[in-house]
Amino acid sequence: MRCLQLLILALLVPANVSLVNPRQVALKVLSSPKKTNVNVDFLSELKTPSDRNLCTNLIQTANRRSGQIDAIIDRYAEKRPKKLVLAGLKLGITQIHFLSTPPHAAIHETLEALKTFKEISKPQINFVNAVLRAADRGKEGEGEVLGNDVLNLSDFIAGSIESDWGAEVLENVARVYSRHSGGVSLTCRDSVEDFSKELSKREVEHVVGDLGSIYVKNPGSIKRLPGFESGLFWVQDASAALPAIILRNGISQISQNTETPPFVIDVCSAPGGKAMQMGSWGWDVEGVELVEKRAKRMCENIERCKLEKNVKVVVADASQHNFERPPVGFLLDAPCSATGTGRKNVDVMRRQNGAQMEAELIETTKSIWSNCLTWGAKVAVFSTCSLSEAEGEKQVNWILGKGEVRIDMIKEEEVPGFADSIDVRGCLRVFPDDTSPGGRDGFFICRFIFE
Ligand SMILES: C[S@@+](CC[C@H](N)C(=O)[O-])C[C@H]1O[C@@H](n2cnc3c(N)ncnc32)[C@H](O)[C@@H]1O
């Protein structure tokens, strides 16, 4: 009998229709609080690109808008429900208030998806229905919540951005982090133009940024993008591609030797975006990475992109490790609080307390820098994907106080599209942005010359 039922079902359901729908998957993810980022395993349950895109959009929006959504739920639900019921409310409000889903469809589809979970009871469905309908009726009066993106940042993150940079920067960062749609920037191993043509041929919507990064709006699974297997690209934000470019300009200013590829150290190297970028220019790169698991993943990336000849990785503590030959330059992309990466890492927005972690990372970076000074390099780039002054500008004060180097000012012509981000000392302070093609993460970069 069961076999017969399955056979009938198989005949009724066309082969390309997925039995799991995007809202069910979104409910599953939203009801498990640890899974804040869209997980490829969940997405792989969905069969079509449009289902995967819808699901990604639902999860991303619900997570990015969580402060605003919570404020709306608190207004219409007398007490906070648990897990799946709460996920139902979040999913409904995401669609009603932040995506342009017609409210009746948003409510109906959310309830239908909820009903497929056997642990959901009839009264719970009625509760979700009532709250979503009330929230829809009250939508016009929610201007204060809907216009306040800062609600989506934890007090700790909002407080530290505001105390370093003021209210206007805080509002901009909150706006960018609340709206980011899940696109990614890629760095190409070979010609950007050729890769862009390949993407166009396969109808992958993308933009080429000022310094050659390619932004893909709806990547879905990265592994499914053309050129992944053959190693034509790796994921790296447009800002994160700048430190290596700035090091290259610094080296070309001081080195007369154009015959031999420069030998450089990529300090704190995994997952390897910058090391591979420099390797793709034919350079001789040695990466130092403390965490073995991360170094292993980096090696897999290097192999995929066929850059083994140019990029070597050593698992070591960069505050202790030494090299047999002096590099012409090094790039220290410091371990940091990563608060500039909230566009791709939603967890950053909600961090409750990072003060202790930040203080420890600052000390680690100082001891790494002290060791780097013994390597005999001529040029250095220090970078961090943090928005914190203490991890960027104030570290530069400490570096200058330690001596042996001076700042080599970054010039406007080196960084087209980023010239506005050069500060008075000639360092680059990039804030998260979504107005330039593909947008960018927050970053801080300073170049030094050894005296
Ligand atoms: C910001 S990430 C580097 C990103 C990398 N530069 C890239 O472009 O892909 C910082 C890295 O530093 C590593 N790290 C932390 N402390 C270290 C140490 N003492 N020595 C070497 N690596 C360290 C971390 O494990 C992490 O992988």
UniProtKB/TrEMBL annotation:
GO molecular function, a single term: RNA binding
Keyword RNA-binding belongs to the record: yes
Gene3D superfamilies from the UniProt entry: NusB-like (1.10.940.10), Vaccinia Virus protein VP39 (3.40.50.150)
Keywords (A to Z) from UniProt: Methyltransferase, RNA-binding, S-adenosyl-L-methionine, Signal, Transferase
Catalytic site positions: C385 (nucleophile)
GO-annotated biological processes: maturation of LSU-rRNA; regulation of DNA-templated transcription; rRNA base methylation
SUPFAM superfamilies on file: NusB-like, S-adenosyl-L-methionine-dependent methyltransferases
Domain SAM-dependent MTase RsmB/NOP-type: 162-451
Residues that coordinate or bind S-adenosyl-L-methionine: C268, S269, A270, P271, G272, G273, K274, E289, D317, D333
Record's signal peptide: 1-18
Gene Ontology CC terms, in alphabetical order: nucleolus
A family per Pfam: Methyltr_RsmB-F
Family, as annotated: Belongs to the class I-like SAM-binding methyltransferase superfamily. RsmB/NOP family.
The protein, known as: SAM-dependent MTase RsmB/NOP-type domain-containing protein
Phylogenetic placement of the source organism: Eukaryota, Sar, Stramenopiles, Ochrophyta, Bolidophyceae
